[in-house]
Amino acid sequence: MTSQATRLTFYNHKGGVGKTTIAVNVGAALASKGKRVLLVDSDPQCNLTSYFFPDDFVNSLLEESETPKGRTVWSALKPLIDEGNSINIIEPFETVINDLFIIPGDIRLSEFEQSLADFWTDCFKRRIIGIKATTALSNLINKLIIKYKFDYVIYDTGPNIGPLNRVILLDCDYFIVPVACDLFSVRALSTLGQSLKRWIIDWETITDLAPDGLYLLKGKPRFLGYIPQRFKTYGQKMAEKSRFYLGHIQRQIHSDLISVLREVDSDLAAESASTSNLGQIKDFGSLVQIAQTEGVPLSKAREGADYLKLQALNAFNEIAENIIRKASISTLAKKKLFRRVKDE
């Protein structure tokens, strides 16, 4: 049984598109609007964890992760993966932002990811351990949502198309694509859509094959929108080169992502590319490094230009508001559809 909270991720297998920074700042913006938010560091590189905690504390977390004191995501998953026991329910850490919490990452997630490739094959063979391992992270999040009453869960993922990101995407209600205004981001969109399509279709097959009574992933991540970011501005206007790529990105979003997902299910990409821009994040220069060093959202940095902090605050608030609005509209539409089908 799934728990009632919105799960999402900022996903792009291309590196350098600011996923972690966006996760932190959008999470903080959602928390400022009265939402309880859980950040899940599901990247073995632990960038999200390192954003909030100093190196010596991160090192201690990793050293203790396989002990009874462990509080990383691997501490929770290890009993099931290694011994076939139940997952260990760990306590999230509070961040410096009220109502914003984090489950720390772990470099041992790379080992978990390698195992997930075999567990995925086991799912097609109707092996229970394969399905339990594939849904283990989702089960952990279920229990944490219920215990701590989270409204939003945000996964921070690594820049790859691998087994770990596959199960994370299939667990999410929504995914959001951060894109830099450059040629590489345009090219990356073509493989993104096809990978998601294949994962969704494969999981539908696994769902049909799975023995009765097992918890399964939703398996239908919906495209909520994209976020152009790290573009240059002159005055209040986007630089000409960035505008050029922004146009290309919008067209690729339609042809390589929205159209591909609609082949599987029209509800997975209900909006057009022209209406799915959730907000734009310009290049904030050194303010990003300052905020990361201080372990706070951009708008809360002690150092840096005040006008940049205000612009960052407004940009991430806009994105958070669009996420809340679009997720609410989607949920309402599904409820109406369910009632109509039930009445018929």
In short:
This protein is an alpha/beta fold. The protein has helices spanning about 20-30, 45-50, 55-65, 75-85, 110-125, 130-135, 135-150, 165-170, 185-210, 240-265, 285-295, 305-344, and strands spanning about 5-10, 35-40, 95, 100-105, 150-155, 175-180, 220-230, 235, 235-240, 280.
List the helices and strands and how they pair.
Layout: E1 6-10, H1 19-32, E2 37-41, H2 47-52, H3 55-64, H4 73-83, E3 93-94, E4 100-103, H5 109-124, H6 128-134, H7 136-148, E5 152-156, H8 163-171, E6 174-180, H9 183-209, E7 222-231, E8 233-234, E9 237-238, H10 240-264, E10 281-282, H11 286-294, H12 306-343
Parallel strand pairs: 1-5, 1-6, 2-4, 2-5, 6-7, 7-10
Antiparallel strand pairs: 3-4, 8-9
Helix pairs in contact: 1-12, 5-6, 9-10
Explain how this protein is built.
Helices cover 54% and strands 13% of the residues. It has helices spanning 19-32, 47-52, 55-64, 73-83, 109-124, 128-134, 136-148, 163-171, 183-209, 240-264, 286-294, 306-343; strands at 6-10, 37-41, 93-94, 100-103, 152-156, 174-180, 222-231, 233-234, 237-238, 281-282. Strand 3 and strand 4 form a beta hairpin. The radius of gyration is 20 Å and the shape is globular. The two termini are 26 Å apart. Mean pLDDT is 89; it is low at 335-344.
